[in-house]
């Protein structure tokens, strides 16, 4: 059910040889573009390792090998495994969040929040989103760094997006905007509970009936914001 | 933050010696009470092992040692590690669920469901409940048996309890009782999302303000049931 992305090790060995051949022409400090390439390779290798083996079992040695850099170079980029994984997870979440919480066309409160819910459900159906969530579920209660990064880049961004939607709704005057933060938390908890409960009992992806239920709940919760 | 229960190994070695001394007086098939004692020790040792090391790393050999039985005896009780853990988890959840979902005095819909939410929150503040939930979060997406047992004994029991409360509310005639299952799922997802999101970002136990928020959401969701 969950799909991870495992680094193609054989390809990596071939790539390493090509790289060292290219480098043998001239040694010294890597150029800016070489340095960016190294950073990108480290982050990709780190992501593959954590998805394949989990945070605890992923080794810096194996990551250096897959990224085709020396351990010394790896540690000059990231002094600790924890710092590397924070960067890896942050990079993945930044891409994921940008795709998950795009702009919603301005509409009524019910329309905007409904569109938001449908977009998030669309993202939750994707294999790489499920891989991120599996990682969060399995690792975050042990490795609090992962929880904090996820909080900032996923829950935090979604929360700001919901608050923006509430404040810019065409019928915003009917609602108590001072409570938008409370509503955003209620909606996030509802979506998170709805999805993670299904992930835990092995009912992923959700059915269209379950998606309709989620939209109905989002509307019921709008009552929290309504004046009077 | 999470509190597990680790088996006192030294005590266990001493206990094993005492047991084998007692048994050396007369050999043969264990009596019914001896057999129950063995089963209880296996389940306790299994629980300690899974809490300390996780499902994957817990070994049948170590469990037999802590339970003070031979591997042969252990396998005669549980043929596979998966069967043992299903029993271990089921035993723990049965105790936990009985305590978590007791009878609620009959009242209005808002009163009964409010009391239910407060009781569940009270349970979620306990260390052993948190240990169970940590186990579910970390293991269930990989080991679907754990998810299924948790679904049956925790979500399943809570769901039935909520439906009973809805149907026996003193103002039940104002509500559409045919939708009680949908409401029960909405409330469960809300409580689960509310708690597990906090567990993931390291904000456990919840504050009293957060508990008040949960009660308000439960009331907002009652709109799903209200007629008209």
Q: Layout of helices and strands, plus pairs?
A:
The structure is a homodimer of 228-residue chains.
Chain A: H1 9-23, H2 32-57, H3 60-67, H4 71-77, H5 81-100, H6 109-124, H7 127-139, H8 144-167, H9 180-200, H10 208-221
Helix pairs in contact in A: 2-3, 2-5, 2-7, 5-8, 6-10, 8-9, 9-10
CATH architecture of the largest domain in chain A: Orthogonal Bundle
Distance between the termini of chain A: 45 Å
Note the run of SSEs of chain A as H and E. HHHHHHHHHH
| Class inferred from helices and paired strands of chain A | mainly alpha
Biggest interface reads: A-B, 38 and 38 residues
Number of structural units classed as domains of chain A: 2
Uncertain runs of chain A with pLDDT below 50, 5 residues or more? 1-8
Radius of gyration of chain A: 21 Å
CATH class of the largest domain in chain A: Mainly Alpha
Largest sheet of chain A: none
How many beta strands in the DSSP annotation of chain A? 0
Task: Give the % helix of chain A.
Answer: over 70%
Give the overall average pLDDT of chain A: 83
Proportion of β residues of chain A? under 5%
CATH topology of the largest domain in chain A: Tetracycline Repressor, domain 2
Quaternary structure: homodimer
